[in-house]
Amino acid sequence: MRKSLALILSAGLLLSLAACSGSPAAPDCAGAAPSGESSDAITATGDLGADPSASFPFPLVTDTPQRSVLIDGDGQQVGLGGTVVTSYTVYDGDTGAAVGAPQSTALVVSDGLPAGLKGALLCTSTGERVAAVIPKDEAAEIVTGATGSIVMVFDISAAFPQAADGADQPAQAGFPSVVHDADGRPGITINSGDNPTEAKSTLIKKGTGDPVAEGDSLVVQATAVSYDAPRDVANSTWEDGTPQLWTMTADAAPTQSTWQPAGIAEHLIGQPIGSEVLVVLPGADGGAATAYVVDLLGVLPSATQ
């Protein structure tokens, strides 16, 4: 493999930044890659988040994905549908040489990732360093032109759950009703004929994390339903397959990668991470209002923004 070979970790891509949060429940780790003789042969030095300078006997070959934990994490494990923020380095299993420079990104741990990559990241946690060996038949899905096994070393700087993990709060009168499926995805029911003309919000779940502050870059899951089409979902990160990054300022404008509505930040600032908030925003010039259910998953540290 040449050092110029392009990495194609694009499936489930979220952000090229770091973040922090917890997990709503113990995940199913049945799909996580097991440790094995090949992955156990990998060592890596250096501080977490720095170039790990991995070494291993080569050629390093495996028939199935393997991973070994080099540094234990200190957070809850991320399950399928959750997001990890990681720096990583890729190595040629045949020569031991690094393939390209270290990279940093955030990835949704989903079935959209190559199986070996999903197996390497599933059930990792914040503060963990993981070494993985991915066999030849899967390596080319990750590194263009790979001709043998690849070795990947991941430093997990943060792990987000798929959904808010806060405690359920009593339903409040005057708001749409919200129910959830087993994964935490919300469904919104709006009473026919309603069309609020003033903004309002209420907690559906109350988290235990730090409160969201003005200026924070907030990672969210969100669902929007318009009062003039209550049977249809107008926007949903759940359907899109990735959370979004919303800016907690009053003048935040949507970017190409987000549909954050104007005026929603003031209803999220002050709420603890892990909460789920129901926000109703009136339509412009007397138009239809929109209900938003927003899961507050984590905040990007200021040093990464």
From TrEMBL:
PROSITE patterns: PROKAR_LIPOPROTEIN. Residues 189-200 have a biased composition (Polar residues). This is Peptidylprolyl isomerase. The keyword Signal applies. Keywords: Signal. Residues 167-200 are annotated as: Disordered. Residues 1-25 form the signal peptide. The lineage of its organism: Bacteria, Bacillati, Actinomycetota, Actinomycetes, Micrococcales. It comes from the Bacteria.
